[in-house]
Write a structure and sequence with these properties.
Largest sheet: 2 strands, antiparallel
Number of helices: 14
Distance between the termini: 64 Å
CATH topology: ABC transporter involved in vitamin B12 uptake, BtuC
CATH class: Mainly Alpha
Structural class: mainly alpha
Helix content: over 70%
Length: 314
């Protein structure tokens, strides 16, 4: 086994799997980072991803087009997160409680939709998946070509979105205004910044990206749907935001780290049957707990994060 682990093929396999897993965590983490920058702590990523995964899966099944499935997943994530946004922004409900509710609701809705759809078919439903996009010439390079230049276009989109988020948050006036809402909303309002609009915008972005991540799961990553297909990756994305200290570069680094760990446990399941797969499946979550316990630095989060904004309050 040691020779297998040290081989170039094994390392290349891990990197290829890492890029397959990366968009799921990275898009969820990017959306959550923007949401928390506006003071909206949304722990309901798992539920939003679950809704996006089932809507994307069913749309891909019926339209025979995975890209329609991903678009449907984005819209489903947007609608789902509007429930969270309305309850927390307009009704000032506790963000953590509502987030937990979204998780439970999302899993239940996904299970209900899948059960209803399968009753109409005698066999197991399978979606049409989007294949990798091979870059000419670069994709033909031995080993490196398959690892870096023969991936789904969603991998490139997820990486570009991090750059866009960084530019928006730190290089534009509207991004600065959104960060001000997450730091000190009362002072931001005195400058004419529309607090409610910024919060809804942040929630919209978070919902769409999480829905996209869920749809990617069932239209690119795999071609089928099973209950609990998200498998806790929404929580890992949430942890990546904290581990990355709410900074785009840090969030990207955290997502790469968690994706490598996830890819490693998947590859180890293949090459060594002696290790219980349940133990290997624990690896990403154990690393998440260790990262949060020993490497999380308090005080980096936006000051008004998770706090309701009541205009009349003094």
């Amino acid at each position: 086994m040691e020779d297998t682990i040290l081989s170039i093929g094994f390392v290349a396999g891990i990197l290829m799997m890492m890029f397959r897993v990366l968009p799921i965590i990275l898009m969820g983490a990017t959306g959550e980072m923007i949401s928390e920058m506006a003071g909206m702590t949304n722990i309901g990523l798992e539920g939003i991803m679950s809704v996006g995964s089932i809507i994307g899966f069913l749309t891909s099944c019926y339209t025979k087009n995975p890209y329609f499935g991903m678009l449907a997943g984005i819209l489903a994530g947007l609608v789902t997160n509007y429930i969270y946004a309305y309850l927390t922004i307009h009704l000032n409900a506790d963000q953590i409680i509502v987030g937990n509710t979204i998780n439970i609701l999302g899993l239940a809705v996904a299970s209900l939709l899948y059960t209803t759809a399968t009753k109409q078919h005698s066999g197991m439903l399978t979606s049409v998946t989007a294949g990798p996009l091979k870059i000419p010439l670069l994709g033909d390079i031995p080993i490196i070509g398959n690892v870096f230049f023969n991936n789904s276009i969603v991998v490139d989109i997820s990486l570009i979105l991090v750059v866009v988020a960084w530019f928006y948050l730190y290089k534009t006036k509207t991004g600065l205004a959104l960060r001000a809402v997450g730091e000190y909303p009362r002072a931001a309002e005195t400058l004419g910044i529309r607090i409610i609009r910024k919060k809804y915008f942040a929630c919209s972005v978070c919902g769409m990206l999480c829905g996209f991540a869920g749809a990617y799961l069932t239209t690119v990553y795999i071609s089928s749907y099973v209950s609990g297909v998200v498998s806790g990756r929404g929580y890992v994305a949430l942890a990546a935001v904290i581990f990355g200290k709410w900074k785009p570069k840090g969030v990207l680094a955290a997502c790469l780290f968690f994706s490598i760990i996830d890819a490693l446990q998947l590859r180890l399941q293949i090459i060594d049957k002696a290790i219980p797969y349940q133990l290997l499946q624990m690896m990403p979550y154990l690393c998440t707990l260790i990262a949060l316990a020993f490497f999380m630095k308090p005080g980096c989060e936006p000051k008004a994060n998770g706090k309701p904004y009541i205009r009349e309050a003094r």
